[in-house]
Design a protein that fits this description.
With about 300 residues, the protein is an alpha/beta fold. The chain has 2 domains: about 5-215, Rossmann fold; about 230-300, Helicase, Ruva Protein, domain 3. Helix content is about 50%, strand content about 10%. The chain has a 5-stranded parallel β-sheet, with helices on both faces. Strand 4 (about 160-165), helix 7 (about 170-175) and strand 5 form a beta-alpha-beta unit. Helix 3 crosses helix 8 (about 195-215) and helix 12 crosses helix 13 (about 290-300). It is globular and about 65 Å long.
Length: about 300
Amino acid sequence: MNETDRLDTEQVNSRSYDLDQMTSEEILRVMNEEDGQVPAAVGRHLAEIAQAVDCIADALGQGGRLFYVGAGTSGRLGVLDAYECPPTFGTSPETVQAVLAGGSHRAQADESAEDDADQGAADLRARAVGASDVVVGLAASGRTPYVLGALAAAKEAGARTIGLSCSAGSPLGRMADIAIEVPVGPEVLTGSTRLKAGTAQKLVLNMLSTAAMVKLGKAYRNFMVDMQPSNSKLRQRAVRIVRSATGEEDEAAVRALEQCGYNVKTAIVALLTESDAEASARWLEQAGGRVRDAIRLAGANG
């Protein structure tokens, strides 16, 4: 038996052992029931995830960057989360970046790239990662050489490191400053970690980016007030957010957004403090972009 045979992610699921003999509905039922175990598995690791959120928020709040490094499904999930941050939270594309083994430009995945630890280190150094940054290594098995090489380079550069895997006691977890290890049990399709392991990693990535951005003031109540209304659908969403956050009608929300250059935060502050766009922008700047603090500042100076 080799080391890979012992991995949690490579074990055989007894519930799906005769998968090829099942009807379509039976396949779907066992998949659905297995998937249902994932949120509870993630829930058992909220303390470590919270540590990681605080680490990320602290780094980004001081001008640092967040890097997701991975290969295969894990790496592609990192790419997805990184790509969603600018439209959702108004971040620069430089703030949250994904480093994918083989490159994210390929139409066809290069799965062999995950075995190259030296390339992982080189790809990370090419981003000039430093002590102000946070690097999240993503690997379902917790042992992918590309990711381990990248994390070693991150630590060498003084960056804070987080390891996200679905294997307890993994090399990735031992190397990282913060280990998030979420064992989800054997996959329905043996070894196919795009299934439960992928779902677990997606849930954790959702938590890391969303909670960190909320802590950075990119939400007011539960509204994504730094979203970029760059198309018709998103402009309509901006109107709904301003309307819901202020209790105003659509007409007033649209008027405020137009006066504030469709900046959702500024429009909310303007309506709630009965200020003009210029004053509202000033309160927000003084409040570090936090809507609640801007409203308090406006009240104190009203």
